[in-house]
Design brief:
disordered N terminus, seven-stranded mixed β-sheet, two-stranded parallel sheet, 14 helices, single chain
Length: 474
């Protein structure tokens, strides 16, 4: 027994080392053996089985409730038939009154005086009824009441910063808890899935993520000492794609790229923003320069590692508010044809996987070519949206690594140019609409910064003007 434990540990270490070397080798040659895609297909079969089981259970429950209601109604009917003739007469009289349109409580009879009362005035009563009919039509205000209730319950902005609602359950407790114990088969599948995600997938993914970050840091540090030139740029492109492919294994990412002939090579690439892993998704296919605020912690490690190998634009918090300084550095980067395309998320914040919100005009004022990219995640396998006001980066990574997988589609759209006489705002809206249409997303005019701050006074005034126009039109 004394010699048995070290031998088992040695076997585990050898197996782990071989697994990591195999993973790095596959990423280095940009090949896949199809394990992740087969895993995703298996998950789809399990989800479909769960959906059918849940629908069957709902139908059985509905049938049971219907049978119980029918039995209760029959029992009540039999009880009424056995009641006294006096009760039957009262019931018949009530039934007759209902058929004649009268009810037990008549609001008009209560509120209005009857001709038998001493204070009855027929002319005054007629005048009151006429005034009411002329001064108020309830149906005319229903449209405004409906709009107000919709704005209170679920407006277009607030719902974009919450997890996307699923049409069917994906066996994750964070998306829906009411189906876990619908029957013993679903319960067994859920328990097994929970055990697989937390005891097998999560430890492996955490280890792969750690190895990927260390490997990225080492590779970028080594290539950073190389002299500038075409050889370095080609090597950096390969190394970054290789390192991000390793990191994509930490979330079991399955990425489908479409229209690769439109892949950006220079200029500015703009995309809708759902999550920090948008960068990982795009960098697995080609190299980009990044622009953004300096961060600490996990993101800071990645930023410093990337800065050693390729040109990026990082700002301090105070500098990022200076639009002129940002625009100037952006122009300098784009003007150099040797620099890789710079990746920008014009929304400025993460929006859930259902819509695209207002694009900031800064990146569209620089000039040159704009390469639009649409990213759409499949929410059945995991919710990729990062609610930064609710979850920290560590919490978000924990949620990603305990999800089934991250599956997404990326569409490279044809390059777009600013037309003569077109303002930067109009150009930004045109690019945004193209991205929304391709990704099947809702195109919204609202500023994504409403996630953290109150609406501006101008936005309120615009809504007030629209409301007045509707009133005048009516």
């Amino acid at each position: 027994m004394f010699f048995l434990a070290p031998s088992i540990i040695d076997i585990v270490w050898i197996a782990t080392s071989l697994f990591i070397l195999f993973l790095i080798l596959l990423s280095a040659i940009n090949k896949s053996i199809g394990v992740r895609r087969s895993y995703v297909k298996l998950l789809l079969r399990i989800f479909e089985y769960g959906r059918v089981s849940i629908e069957t259970a709902h139908k059985e429950r509905h049938a049971t409730i219907t049978e119980a209601s029918t039995a209760l109604a029959n029992a009540k009917k039999e009880e009424n038939e056995k009641s006294s003739p006096f009760d039957a007469g009262n019931e018949k009289a009530t039934e007759t009154n209902g058929k004649n349109g009268n009810t037990l409580i008549n609001r008009d009879n209560v509120l209005l005086p009857t001709p038998n009362e001493p204070n009855f005035n027929k002319d005054k009563l007629t005048e009151t009824i006429k005034d009411e009919k002329i001064s108020f039509h309830f149906e005319e205000c229903l449209d405004y009441i409906k709009a107000g209730v919709e704005a209170i319950i679920e407006d277009e902005v607030t719902s974009r910063f919450e997890a996307e609602q699923l049409k069917s359950w994906n066996l994750l407790t964070r998306t829906n808890r009411q189906y876990e114990f619908i029957n013993w088969k679903i319960t067994l599948i859920w328990v097994l899935g929970f055990a697989v995600r937390y005891t097998i997938l999560m430890p492996i993914r955490v280890f792969v993520c750690f190895v990927g970050v260390v490997w990225l840091t080492i590779c970028t540090a080594v290539v950073g000492y190389m002299p500038e030139g075409d050889r370095k740029r080609q090597l950096v492109n390969r190394i970054l794609r290789h390192c991000f492919s390793v990191l994509s294994s930490a979330i079991s990412a399955v990425i489908n790229y479409h229209n690769e002939e439109n892949r950006p090579t220079t200029g500015i690439c703009v995309a809708n923003h759902t999550s920090p892993i948008d960068v990982l998704v795009l960098m697995c296919d080609t190299t980009y320069s990044l622009i953004g605020q300096r961060h600490g912690g996990f993101l800071g490690i990645l930023q410093r590692a990337l800065a050693r190998a390729s040109p990026h634009i990082w700002f301090e918090r105070g500098e990022a508010k200076d639009r002129h300084a940002v625009a100037e550095r952006l122009k300098q980067h784009v003007s150099d044809p040797n620099n890789p395309p710079i990746l920008i998320f014009p929304e400025g914040t993460c929006i859930n996987n259902t819509s695209v919100m207002q694009f900031k005009k800064g990146s569209f004022e620089v000039g040159g070519v704009i390469y639009p990219v649409a990213i759409k995640y499949d929410p059945r396998f995991g919710d990729a949206f990062w609610n930064s006001s609710k979850y920290s980066m560590i919490q978000y990574l924990y949620m990603m690594m305990t999800s089934w997988a991250i599956v997404c589609d990326v569409w490279y759209l044809p390059p777009m140019y600013r037309q003569q006489g077109e303002s930067a705002i109009d150009f930004a809206n045109r690019v945004k609409s193209v991205i929304a249409k391709q990704g099947g997303l809702v195109d919204l005019v609202w500023d994504g910064q409403l996630k953290r701050m109150k609406p501006k006074k101008e936005w309120k005034e615009m809504q007030q003007v629209e409301f007045i126009k509707r009133l005048k039109g009516d």
